[in-house]
Amino acid sequence: MSTILDKIAAIEAEMARTQKNKATAGHLGLLKARLAKLRRELITPKGGGGGTGEGFDVAKTGDARVGFVGFPSVGKSTLLSNLAGVYSEVAAYEFTTLTTVPGCIKYKGAKIQLLDLPGIIEGAKDGKGRGRQVIAVARTCSLIFLVLDVLKPLVHKKLIEHELEGFGLRLNKQPPNIYFKKKDKGGINLNCMVTQSELDSDTVKSILSEYKIHNADVTLKYDATSDDLIDVIEGNRIYVPCIYLLNKIDQISIEELDVIYKIPHCVPISAHHRWNFDDLLEKMWEYLKLVRIYTKPKGQLPDYNSPIVLHSEHTSVEDFCNKLHRSIAKEFKYALVWGSSVKHQPQKVGLDHILADEDVVQIVKKV
Q: How far is CA 38 from each of CA 8, 9, 12, 139, 167, rounded to the nearest angstrom?
């Protein structure tokens, strides 16, 4: 393990002392690619699966999963206890929480699983302080709450983001708009739709050759960086929405609070006093992008208490049928839909109709 860490440290040192200009761009791209490969080896060591990690991961339940990530003693456990009513041990010393503590809340009819993860420290991506298991669980979440102490937010934010980025998590980002396809012959074919400031043909070739790829089509649809290209080649990056929770706002003045409110993706809260939880839950709902669909049995009123919850990217009638039961789509004849996704109330639709939030659906089966 130390050899991989030594190699990473050596490459980082070389990158730090290399001047950034057009002449060294190809060399820096090569070093970044090597660094990404070594990081991947750290995440998934060669040869056989690792141990199970003492029951670190928790079974996925509910419609979405939210993980609390942060340094020790920033109030993650207090937040979980006050939000979900689950007791997660709280004390005035660091590393009180040693494994994942799950909780569950119901919000707007959707069941949302909350995970209180142990605190991570600097060097977590290299395996310090159970950090790799913590970040591995964070990779499975649909949303991450980065819990920060309001008195030292920026230092912590940068450190934690660096740890998560090193583990292949990208916070509040879209996947790079780069087309990449390996082929059997024909060399490397690079197409640029806009002028590139960092990547040129030689840099792209040097990065691809590090991955032993000598034949590929690459199309850059925007001004991309070498990091974006490496992310696309690696293909194991996870793009997760993230909300920064600035905890302990009872320790600052109103003027400071007004400034904090202007920061994007930020919600100031006090976990201990339960301040601003409604704003937090509203923002959580907005970032999770969930869509609620109500069912209506024939001749009865719609069931508004327990909606079927879908993600906004998969909201066709077919996805709705599969969420109810896999056999329904096979016996499906048509569906009647009431709501904002149709012009007429009700309207007959097929399997490929896209549903909107709070639609009411009645499914008619083949006889």
A: 7, 11, 12, 19, 11
- Under the banding of pLDDT at 50, 70 and 90, the label for residue 53 is very low
Residues 131, 95 contacting (CB under 8 angstroms): no
Place of tokens 């690792």: 50
Q: In angstroms, how far is CA 108 from the centroid of its own chain? A: 22
Nearest to 273 by CA among 252, 242, 244, 243: 252
Element (H, E) at 107: strand 101-107
Residue 294 banded pLDDT, cuts 50, 70, 90: very high
DSSP 270: B
Beta carbons of 161 and 242 less than 8 angstroms apart: no
- Please report how many Cα atoms fall inside a 13 Å half-sphere around the Cα of residue 145, on the Cβ side: 30
d(CA 250, CA 257): 10
The answer to whether the beta carbons of residues 57 and 100 sit under 8 Å apart is: yes
Which residue intervals of 167-276 are DSSP H helices? 201-210, 226-234, 254-260
Pairing mode of beta strands 359-365, 332-338? antiparallel
Please tell me the predicted confidence (pLDDT) of residue 127. Answer: 58
Are 27 and 207 in contact by the 8 Å Cβ rule? The answer is no
Q: Which of 176, 270, 191, 280 is nearest to 226 (CA)?
A: 176
The C-alpha angle with vertex 359 and arms to 358 and 360, in degrees rounded to 5, equals 120
Type of residue numbered 288: L
Say how far apart CA 360 and CA 101 lie, in whole Å: 36
Residue 84 or residue 179, greater confidence: 179
Strands 110-116 and 64-69: parallel
d(CA 120, CA 169): 15
* Residue 259: alpha-carbon gap to chain centroid: 27
Residue matched to tokens 């708009």: 177
* Alpha-carbon span 329 to 232, nearest angstrom: 34
Cα(268)–Cα(254) distance, integer angstroms: 12
